[in-house]
């Protein structure tokens, strides 16, 4: 059942699928909206230029039906006169026809926007297949289009018939009017007929446009498998991305561990966290965190510190706070200045003692951290780079902690464990 659902097109098309469809020239369009646009532009145009157009047509018709003696004696002038009248009529109709073309083209763009695709110009001989043409006619889409055409013809034809029937007297009476009055009455009759047809087409468009949008969206629906494949093509394989992130974390860890030998001291929990800090009064405003980690990474930091004779101090509250509230290669927050200063004072006194100047410093007590930065002693607080200790490593760290407690305050190879 799961495999069948993955192969069913039940998912909405993705933005990439919609963009590809537009590149192929596939966009929602409604023929009824195009027809409505042309008729609407015609009605609006008549409302704007109807009076001037009626006057121009009346003038041209009167000129075309007027003959004088010179035209009778010179038949060749008839062609020239016909050309003049025709150009005058076209000039009068040109603003109206131009408005119809302009607005009749712009209104359909509100549905799908401007779209130009060269793929539509490529020859597709499969369209010439009689079997495919018959299949389109007998398909559900073809039957829907046939039903829609029949309903539209019935609605528009019925409205047109009703209007002509109700305006029969006016239409037949045009023959009894003079030229000027007949043209004015005919223009008014044409305008009212367009109003009726426009109302009928508005009903058709209100039904067809939502249907065409739904139909286009439905034709582009995707299966779950297609969505997964597209996600792999655009964002990359999740397994590959996870592998890349893992390698990036490993590289970041190696860079961090290479900084541990440069630390001035390491603060530990002692068993769960280790934070290595460095302070150069000439270039730093405050001590900077150069390495930190939990569990197995913390053990590795401790081992490197011991190997390079870097002081290791057990300050559980401070270690937890530094681990939680600091970032690599960033200075410690101002709220921890006082606590870290106590540790730094001990480190500087220890260096002086090792250089033969000064007495052996007293071991610093457990420093206090501000309440807002205090972190409860809850095991298991690890970031994504921390690794849990296995049983052997855990036993090893516990033994090391016991040894540290036993030799508290004793200098051993330049490494002082407190």
| Average pLDDT score | 75
Contiguous helical run count: 16
Percent range for β-strand residues? 5-15%
Largest sheet: 4 strands, mixed
Strand order of the largest sheet: 3-2-1-4
- Our Rg estimate from Cα atoms comes to 44 Å
Helix-and-strand structural type = mainly alpha
Shape type: elongated
Q: Summarize the amount of helix as a percent range.
A: 55-70%
Residue runs with pLDDT of under 50 for 5 or more positions: 380-418
Order of helices and strands: HHHHHHHHHHHHEEEHEHHHEE
Instruction: Compute the separation of the termini in Å.
Output: 64 Å
Counted beta strands: 6
Quick take:
With 418 residues, this protein is mainly alpha-helical. It has 16 helices and six strands. The strands form two sheets. The protein has a four-stranded mixed beta sheet with strand order 3-2-1-4, with helices on both faces. The chain has a two-stranded antiparallel ribbon with strand order 5-6.
General description of the model:
With 418 residues, this protein is mainly α. The protein is 62% helix and 6% strand. It is built from 16 helices and 6 strands. It has helices at residues 2-7, 15-23, 31-64, 69-73, 77-106, 109-112, 130-138, 140-166, 168-172, 179-219, 224-235, 238-259, 296-307, 316-325, 337-354, 391-406; strands at 265-268, 273-278, 288-294, 312-314, 411-412, 415-416. It has a 4-stranded mixed beta sheet, with helices on both faces. It has a two-stranded antiparallel sheet with strand order 5-6. A hairpin with a 2-residue loop joins strand 5 and strand 6 (415-416). The longest helix has 41 residues, at 179-219. 17% of the residues are buried. Residues 380-418 have low confidence and may be disordered.
